[in-house]
Each structure stands twice: as C-alpha cells, then as structure tokens.
Write a structure and sequence with these properties.
Order of helices and strands: HHEEEEHHEEH
Structural class: alpha+beta
Radius of gyration: 14 Å
Largest sheet: 6 strands, antiparallel
Strand content: 25-35%
Shape: globular
Distance between the termini: 31 Å
Number of helices: 5
Helix content: 25-40%
Strand order of the largest sheet: 1-2-3-4-6-5
C-alpha cells in the first residue's frame, strides 16, 4: 500500500521522488521547504539502511543527522531519533497516533529512540514539524 522507491540501481530525480508521494506531495514540498529555509538544513538523496528502506532525503545540520524522509506511494515517512527529554517536551502537542509512536519507539542508547512517522494528513504533518523543531531546538509550530 505504501510502497517505497526500492530500486537501488535507479536514483530518482527530485521530481520523481516528489511525484511518488502522490496525494501527500504538497505536504512533502511544504516540509522540505520548512527544513531547508526555516531550519536551515542541508539535504542529500541516499539509499540507507538496507533494501527495505529505499531512497530517502537525509537532512542534516552541521553534518549531524536530523531526519530521513522516505517517499512512499501517496505518503511519506519521516524517521528521526530524539532523546526522552525531547519526546516529553513535544508529547502534549502531538496527536494520539504520534503519542503512541513515541511511547512505542525503538530504543537507542541510554535514553530516547527512533520513530517512523507516516504523514497522511494535516495533523501528522503538524506533528512532523513539531518533532523537527524539538530536534533542532526551534520554536514549536503549535
């Protein structure tokens, strides 16, 4: 249903990547612009983590990973890691779905962990922005 761009031998153009997001492409365009222009991040396309993940845009600040965004058929998924303190800061401002993702995060190190937030509507788009703001110590978008 939410197939990703999995052909490692064909790096999609930016236009192909955006078009693949289909129904969510406008949200991706807005989020990409927010990441690049407001948060001042850099991005590169890559094929990370193995064949099941597919192509992503990697967003960084001073060579430090902020998130990966994976294009999916009519959606996109943002993968990021926060520490427990950062998750606790954003928890009251995100949807129940995102709260559940945070409570069931994949643990990493002493504290915090990874979540994969699939954006399918305005509420999840807003959640993605707020998680990113916490990650880069920017004012929340609530």
């Amino acid at each position: 249903m939410y197939e990703r761009l999995l052909d490692k031998n064909h790096q999609p153009s930016d236009e192909e990547y955006i078009a693949y997001c289909g129904l969510m492409k406008e949200y991706f365009i807005e989020l990409d612009s927010f990441l690049l222009n407001e948060l001042q991040l850099q991005k590169i396309m890559r094929f990370p983590y193995g064949n099941q993940y597919g192509w992503s845009f990697k967003y960084t600040s001073k060579n430090k990973l902020v998130c990966d965004i994976f294009a999916e058929k009519d959606a996109f998924t943002m993968m990021l890691r926060l520490d427990d303190n950062q998750y606790n800061q954003v928890l009251p401002f995100v949807s129940k779905k995102t709260q559940n993702l945070i409570q069931n995060k994949y643990p990493c190190g002493d504290a915090g962990g990874w979540i994969h937030l699939r954006v399918l509507n305005q509420k999840e788009y807003n959640d993605a922005k707020n998680l990113l703001c916490i990650k880069v110590k920017h004012e929340l978008q609530v």
